[in-house]
């Protein structure tokens, strides 16, 4: 639940930080904050001494999970930059459906399978209802954000599955910190590959503050999430984490005046019902 709250705040703070700032640059800057936060927590709990004891297989899966996370972030924040929060976030939550199905197949989490499948159907139905056509101005295409949001969902689903394998036997804070190193390298690699590093000299001070706060929220969400992933059942943890959409919708209404239609509210209700059914199985 803590992961969900912090994740919900992340989307809103990030949206405030990428109104003028390029989404790739913002992602790279946020990752720096997450990295510092994650390693501070590693030293707080004293798990840095166990780095040498990490099994090679676990390290490989942590790296792969970090790469999937970086790819998901890049797509997600690109979608946020060109689409409405209330439209991007529901598509990104498709990762819940994909993760639950992958967890059933990969980890044999088949307990209460019929109820899980019903919950997945509710989630998928809610997502479809919440995804509405974006009004397009000046003849511009409104489809780009959908593609990025879908790719974000796919990579996010892979992140959870790979992390579950990689974090086994590794202290969760340390596992999160190692993954963040990989995300940082990928994020900054994208910035320099696209020649966007020059934009660092033109950053808006106010947006930089929001990017930093978004990074702190992300770091807090990750630490809670991967501890839950390590000690809990993936197909239950992931849906609970996705309740962050309630926080996102509430703040997007207050901050950005993004109102939901009756259809979208019905979709949100189905998503919450599916999540609660999954959580209390």
Number of alpha- plus pi-helical segments: 12
Strand content: under 5%
| Structural shape | globular
Task: List the uncertain runs.
Answer: 134-141
Description of the structure:
With 281 residues, the chain is mainly alpha-helical. The protein starts with a helix and ends with a helix. The chain is globular and about 45 Å long. The protein has helices spanning 2-17, 23-45, 56-82, 85-92, 94-107, 113-130, 144-166, 172-193, 205-231, 234-241, 244-256, 262-279.
Fill in the keyword field for this structure.
281 residues; mainly alpha; 77% helix
Short description:
By secondary structure, this protein is mainly α.
Q: What's the helix and strand layout?
A:
Layout: H1 2-17, H2 23-45, H3 56-82, H4 85-92, H5 94-107, H6 113-130, H7 144-166, H8 172-193, H9 205-231, H10 234-241, H11 244-256, H12 262-279
Helix pairs in contact: 1-9, 1-11, 2-3, 2-8, 2-9, 3-7, 3-8, 4-6, 4-7, 4-11, 5-6, 5-7, 5-10, 6-12, 8-9, 9-10, 10-12
């Amino acid at each position: 639940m803590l992961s969900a709250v912090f994740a919900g705040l992340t989307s809103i703070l990030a949206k405030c930080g990428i109104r003028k700032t390029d989404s790739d640059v913002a992602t790279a800057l946020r990752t720096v904050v997450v990295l510092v936060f994650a390693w501070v927590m590693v030293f707080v709990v004293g798990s840095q001494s166990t780095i040498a004891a990490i099994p090679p297989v676990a390290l490989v899966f942590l790296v792969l999970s970090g790469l999937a996370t970086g790819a998901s972030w890049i797509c997600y924040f690109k979608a946020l930059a060109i689409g409405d929060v209330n439209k991007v976030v529901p598509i990104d939550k498709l990762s819940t459906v994909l993760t639950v199905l992958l967890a059933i197949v990969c980890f044999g989490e088949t307990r209460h399978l019929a109820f899980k499948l019903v919950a997945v159907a509710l989630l998928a139905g809610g997502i479809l209802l919440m995804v509405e056509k974006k009004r397009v101005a000046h003849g511009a295409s409104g489809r780009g954000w959908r593609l990025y949001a879908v790719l974000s969902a796919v990579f996010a689903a892979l992140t959870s599955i790979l992390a579950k394998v990689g974090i086994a036997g590794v202290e969760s804070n340390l596992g999160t910190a190692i993954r963040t190193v990989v995300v940082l390298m990928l994020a900054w690699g994208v910035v320099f590959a696209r020649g966007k590093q020059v934009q660092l000299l033109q950053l808006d001070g106010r947006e930089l503050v929001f990017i930093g706060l978004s990074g702190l929220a992300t770091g807090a969400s990750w630490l809670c999430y991967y501890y839950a992933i390590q000690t809990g059942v993936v197909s239950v943890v992931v849906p609970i984490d996705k309740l962050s959409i309630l926080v996102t919708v509430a703040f997007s209404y207050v901050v950005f005046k993004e109102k939901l239609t009756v259809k979208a509210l019905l979709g949100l209700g189905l998503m919450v019902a599916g999540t609660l059914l999954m959580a209390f199985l």
